[in-house]
Amino acid sequence: MNPHRDGKNQPIDPEQLVRLLDLELAQQRAARQRARSPYRAFRMASIIFLFAVIVGVLLAFYYVFYSGGLDELRSRNEPRPSAIPSSRVP
Predict the structure, then answer these.
(1) What's the pLDDT tens digit per position in 18-35?
(2) What confidence tens digit (pLDDT) does each residue in 34-57 have?
(3) Closest listed residue to residue 56, CA positions, set 76, 74, 34, 64
């Protein structure tokens, strides 16, 4: 630039200006990347958790309605005749 500081303006070197601009843009890009990374991890953890919940619901649905889990529950609650005579007097 102007090493003698005598107040005269020197012409700006276009290549040096491009290098400075490139350096500034790289610094801004790096700063944005550092600021964005915690939210990216939180978003990924949320998506994985939601996926696990949906898979759990689907497995529960399959167990209850297709593999006979509902029939097992119904059969457990049905009254069964017992071998012991009842002590009720009519």
Answers:
(1) 899 999 999 998 888 777
(2) 776 667 888 899 999 999 999 999
(3) 64
Write the single-letter amino acid at 3. P
Provide the token pair at 22. Answer: 């490139």
DSSP run (H or E) holding 23? helix 14-65
Q: pTM surpassing 0.70?
A: no
Contact predicate 10/1, CB 8 Å: yes
Q: Mapping DSSP to helix (H, G, I), strand (E, B) and coil, where does residue 73 land?
A: helix
Amino acid 23 reads L
58 phi and psi angles, rounded to 5 deg: -65, -40
Tokens of 73: 């529950």
Helix or strand or coil: residue 89? coil
